[in-house]
Amino acid sequence: MSESLIVVVILSYFSLLFIVSSLTKGSGDNRTFFSGNKESPWYVVAFGMVGASLSGITFISVPGDVGSISLTYFQVVIGYLFGYFIVAFVLLPIYYKQNLTSIYQYLGDRFGRNSHMTGAFFFFVSRILGAAFRLFLVAIVLQKFVFDSWGIPFEFTVTISILLIWIYTFRGGIKTVVWTDTLQTFLMILSVFLSIYFIITSLDTGFVDFLYSEDFKTKSDIFITDSILEKNHFIKSFLGGVFITVCMTGLDQDMMQKNLTCRTLYDAQKNMIVFSLILVVVTFIFLILGTLLFTYAEKNDILIPMLNDRESTDLLFPQIALNSGLNLTLSITFLLGLIAAAYSSADSALTSLTTSFCIDFLDIEKKDAKIQKKLRFYVHILMSIFLIIVILIYENYLSTSVIDSLLIIAGFTYGPLLGLFAFGIFTDYKINDPLSIFVCIISVVIITIIFYLPETFLGGYKIGYELLPINGLITFFGLYLIRKRSPLN
Asked: 434-459, pLDDT tens digit by residue?
């Protein structure tokens, strides 16, 4: 696929997004930007959240990870499903009962201003790192397959990517994101199905025949139950998946902001359950695609592309889709799917970061309407700059697959949020509010020491995605130590 055609596809796609943005921006006031006037149909939110949850990481990194861990990532996905039910029936009722704009306002009401700020700070760090991961993938693909040949630096590619997101979200905010995410989810799912079709056709086999083939069987391991010491043992992966969902969805302003645009709690819960079921099915299809990609690469002597002097399985899908000469339709649908997957999560991340910073740190709701709008405008720009800086750091230092890196980092940054919310929901105690930030920081320090302990020191035990609940438990215990002696009741 030629570089010029890739650019035409990208520009056409963003032109469509700008049209959707102009139709959904509404009045462009803060209520529209932050909560969508609470008018979003639940089924639209549910479908759009699939794309926001999957992102470019699932689109590229999950299929790419099949080469090293087969289908064992699905153990984590099963945990996700249980986690979504916890979000729907434990967390959402709390958020709707208190009519929150930012979910971290709950911590302020429960413990005090310092805890509110602490929760917002850890979300801020978590979402900046997570959104940058997702955008890094699409930027590195565009750089490697388009802009390198034109001599355009990576810094320019990243800046343009962020600028395009900023343009179509700065007026309508979450109201625009709900509808653009729906479009982007459709394109992403269409792309993966067409990719499977074209690769199956090129292998001269049928889909069912492939599932019974030796090529599939060599990559089809799902459950790891031999030794609990292994990083991806089922119990560790499952529990990690449950807590990753509770934290990265239920305690994350980005994902919850979409749910809070639904008209009622019942609508939001329907959205969460339907969305979770669709997500599980779609993620498994991505894993099947991964087995096809590696099979196709092996049969056609396609080498895994290099990134920073090492093989990067994250780039295998784009290599096959754009450079193997397989099918022009596949190239176009892959490109649309990749951009849709990346931007469906990045646009909502940028919007939620702006919302959280304005509500949680600047307390914007207490200011004059004109000042509110001006502050929101500048904060939106500031969040964009932060994303650019973090992506450029990743480009030089990322050393593992993006999906693995994202879930590991989540264990560090979302653990304090898990501990704070759990202590607020499941105990009646107040805490010494000014000390909450120190408890959370100490928890992260302890979990960092645990993570980097040599395996021999741990008796051969390998830390996996259970890092997140351990972090949350340490935070919970720390909050118990700084509790006030008299319960609330």
From this structure: 999 999 999 999 999 988 877 667 66
